[in-house]
Amino acid sequence: MSDETSTKKRHITITALFALTVLFAIGFSIYRYYFIQDFHYYVEVACDPKTEECGLRDCENNPDSCPPNMLSNYKGYYINAYDFPKCQDGSCEKACKEGMISCEPAE
Q1: Residues 43 and 31 in one domain
Q2: Residues whose CB falls within 8 Å of the CB of residue 16, separated by 6 or more in sequence, listed in order
Q3: Residue 78 contacts residue 106 (beta carbons within 8 Å)
Q4: 105 in Cβ contact with 75 (< 8 Å)
């Protein structure tokens, strides 16, 4: 009977450790991505190929490969999620140029 009791205790202990590990992982993810916003956004802004190096996609012949703003000439930036509310428009181009936020050019 003591073997059966110790087996039940061991089973409860393993189940509790597993549940605590899962709860910790969920809690840490919520804290990291919701509260401190430790991730990046990729944003695209219009680009003039005559003065800058730009990405190019064919929006006329293949509209399914283009975003809703139909940017065929674009440049991309990575922006910290916690900086995104500082942008006045969805592209954050002005905030990047003025140095208000940290923007890393996408290659």
Answers
A1: no
A2: none
A3: yes
A4: yes
The radius of gyration computed from the CA coordinates of the chain, to the nearest angstrom, equals 24
Query: How many domains, in total, are found in the chain?
Result: 2
Yes or no: say if 101 and 95 are a contact pair by the CB < 8 Å rule.
yes
pLDDT of residue 2: 67
Give me 34's structure tokens: 């919701």
Helices (H) and strands (E) in the chain, counts: 2, 4
Given this model, what pLDDT does residue 11 score? 94
Cα dist. 21→13, 15, 25, 41 in Å? 12, 10, 6, 29
d(CA 87, CA 102): 11
Range of the domain at 15: 1-36
Model's pTM, two decimal places? 0.68
Strand, coil or helix: 29: helix
Write out 77-93 in H/E/C secondary structure: EEEEHHHHHHCCCCCCH
